[in-house]
Write a structure and sequence with these properties.
This protein is of the alpha+beta class and 681 residues long. The strands form five sheets. Strands 2-1-5-4-3 form a five-stranded antiparallel sheet. Strands 7-6-10-9-8 form a five-stranded antiparallel sheet. Strands 12-15-18-11-19 form a five-stranded parallel sheet. The longest helix has 27 residues, at 109-135. It has 26 helices and 19 strands.
């Protein structure tokens, strides 16, 4: 049986079209209208056939005849009337090079506008994506699923140094022709194979820029590869930005330091050296008090720590820096003259008084700062008068009945414990509280060894300039200074440096400093009593240990002669009895030494172990010499490694301070380590 076949005619095809199709002959008469045209114009049967097209659609009559005459198509002609809104596209029908008619396609304007809007949206989206692609500061490129490059943005050209025309249309494995090795594009191949993002660091051969590259696969719903999107970020620009940020931070920190008043040049101009955290904190507190014009500041610290310099520093940083700074040492002026010096006197107030009288130091300090040094040595009678001035700010000269109003900032200093003196009724408690509104304690030099290095350099340079000398101190010389306790603090260090510059015959002051410091440190004479036990007393009984403890305690008490504290009570006489804590410490040390000695003797006298586990020549676990050798080897290894670290650091550092900062330690420690390993900058 033959298969069934329906004959499909052209009219059937045109009737099935979603567009309204109208055909006219050479004269412009309608010869065909499909089903949608008859629906638009409500034509039934053969109605409308043979009509001039202008009778059916007057708006396109002229365009149709122009098309029939010239053969030019007319696209997008709008036809609007009350019951119809369509867009007409008119195209000529040409047969054997002759125009025999025209085809008119009509589409509902609403549908046409919807399509146009979609098309316009796609165009805008395409322009947006293109703008993003071209404006990105990161290098962007796109490859198809086969690995052929199809897009290359301007930033990629700038970062890599390659033009898009050198890459577009090439497979990523064929880029060796332009200088890109297969090793550099391996991450792209891995991204295609694994279908996941792969990152890498590259240095492009042409631009010499270091970049962070990413290759990201784009997949469809079925996990099939569509595209490879690449991103390359210029790390050289990032590094430059980081350097700029670090520079900005450094500038900010420098500005803060200058604004805080701790500029090193300014400090050294006032002979103030501060490298330790403790001294920097002291100066920061002093600056704060100066900025708020604080008065009644009490500066405490041992003699020679620089209390006078700090008082002058506070005055210079205050708003009254242009006003007088008056200083008096309460311990240096006799009691019968101290009152006249402070409060002044009138003509004939006492025997020997001047003919014209004299203003006191408090009057001279009006508007400025009065510095009362060694306030703890002020007589009790004058303390009461000073307290009265602090209460009402009024001064009356000796022999006068006239009151003078004086306003000045009071800064006092002492090396004594005023609180304890107040408890012992040696200093007025009410005056102590009036003077102690703000307290600044300057730590002794032995507690801030970081400052010793800078102080030595400062004073050696100062006296070199003053006396036209060219002396210097090496790391070994400063090391000897670091080991000295400096009971006289900065004043003693200053004197030692001055003496060395003037008296030493050598350019290098190391030997002179070491010899003189040893003379200062060594006791004048030692009185050593006969020990109650024999030389091998470490193996004595418990009774012997107690006797040895008493002997050592008596020897220490008799010969311990520290430097007297300047301005305080002289120490040096042996105490009548030994402090219980000292006796306990000595006894513990002796007991520990006896235990170590007994164990060493036992191990040395013990016979060596025999057997397969102890081959000849190897030290046994109980061998004391073997244990010492192991400790020595470990110490040597640690010292060798430490020396190697210092040698490496010295390649990058030119000064002790730079070396200390590089190794994150103090200048004093750096100096000591250099001397230990025989190194020098």
């Amino acid at each position: 049986m033959a298969p069934h076949r329906d004959d499909i005619e052209l009219s059937d095809v045109l009737d099935a079209s979603s567009n309204a199709v109208l055909v006219v002959d050479r004269e412009g008469a309608v010869v065909f209208a499909n089903r949608r045209v008859r629906s638009f114009f409500q034509l039934k049967g053969n109605k409308g056939f043979g009509w001039p097209v202008g009778d059916l659609i007057p708006q396109i009559d002229r365009d149709v005849h122009e098309c029939l005459r010239s053969g030019a198509a007319a696209i997008g002609r709008r036809v609007e009337r009350k019951d119809l809104k369509v867009v007409a596209n008119i195209s000529p029908i040409i047969k054997q090079n002759r125009i025999v008619g025209a085809s008119i396609s009509l589409k509902n304007m609403v549908e046409y506008e919807q399509l146009a809007e979609q098309l316009d949206s796609y165009k805008k989206q395409n322009k947006l994506l293109q703008a993003i692609f071209n404006a990105s500061t990161d290098g962007l490129w796109i490859m198809d699923s086969s690995g052929v490059l199809v897009a290359w943005n301007p930033a990629a050209e700038h970062i890599t140094g390659y033009r898009s025309k050198e890459f577009i249309g090439k497979h990523f494995e064929e880029l060796e022709d332009v200088g890109i090795s297969k090793e550099e594009v391996r991450y792209i191949k891995e991204a295609i194979e694994t279908k996941r993002q792969i990152s890498t660091f590259n240095i492009h051969p042409r631009s010499k820029k270091q970049v962070l590259g990413n290759a990201t696969p784009v997949l469809d719903e079925d996990e099939n590869l569509l595209w490879i999107v690449g991103n390359e970020h210029d790390l050289s620009e990032l590094n430059a930005m980081r350097e700029e940020l670090e520079n900005a931070i450094q500038v900010t920190e420098k500005a803060k330091a200058e604004l805080s008043g701790l500029n090193l040049l300014e400090l050294r101009g006032q002979e103030i050296v501060a490298e330790s955290k403790a001294m920097l904190h002291v100066l920061q507190v002093a600056v704060k008090l100066a900025k708020i014009d604080a008065s009644h500041i009490l500066i405490t610290g041992e003699s020679g720590t620089g209390k006078g310099f700090l008082a002058k520093f506070i005055h210079n940083k205050s708003a009254n820096a242009s006003q007088p700074f008056i200083q008096i040492n309460c311990a240096a002026v006799p009691e019968n003259l101290l009152e006249a010096e402070l409060f002044g006197y009138e003509k004939g107030a006492f025997t020997g008084a001047g003919d014209k009288g004299k203003a006191g130091l408090i009057e001279l300090a009006h508007g400025g700062t009065l510095f009362l040094d060694e306030i703890g040595d002020m007589p009790m009678r004058l303390q009461a008068k000073l307290l009265k001035y602090l209460d009402d700010h009024e001064v009356m000269r000796l022999g006068s009945v006239k009151v003078r109003k004086i306003d000045c900032s009071i800064v006092s200093a002492t090396n004594q414990d005023l609180e304890q003196m107040a408890e012992q009724k040696l200093f007025r408690q009410d005056l102590y509280f009036r003077l102690n509104n703000f307290q600044i304690h300057i730590p002794p030099l032995r507690e801030r060894k970081e400052d010793i290095f800078e102080l030595v350099q400062f004073y050696v340079r100062k006296y070199n300039r003053k006396y036209k000398r060219h002396k210097r101190v090496s790391t070994q010389g400063i090391e000897s200074m670091l080991s000295f306790p400096f009971p006289g603090n900065v004043r003693e260090l200053q004197n030692i440096c001055k003496q060395a510059v003037l008296m030493s015959e050598e350019t290098l002051l190391d030997r002179y400093l070491a010899e003189n410091l040893q003379m200062v440190c060594a006791p004048a004479s030692l009185s050593v009593p006969d020990p109650p036990v024999s030389s091998d007393s470490l193996a004595a009984s418990a009774t012997g240990i107690n006797d040895l403890t008493a002997w050592m305690a008596a020897w220490i008490a008799r010969n311990l002669n520290p430097h007297p504290i300047e301005g305080g009570v002289t120490k040096g006489s042996a105490p009548e009895s030994v402090h219980p804590l000292l006796a306990t410490i000595i006894q513990k040390v002796i007991e520990m030494g006896k235990s170590i000695y007994d164990e060493a003797c036992r191990q040395r006298l013990a016979p060596p172990a025999e057997g397969p586990l102890s081959p000849p020549g190897d030290p046994v676990p109980g061998d004391a010499e073997g244990a010492v050798d192991n400790i020595t080897n470990l110490t040597a290894a640690l010292d060798a490694r430490e020396r190697e670290i210092f040698l490496q650091a010295m390649q990058h550092c030119r000064t002790i301070r730079e070396l200390a900062e590089h190794l994150q330690t103090s200048p004093a420690t750096a100096l000591r380590k250099l001397k230990k390993h025989g190194l020098s900058l």
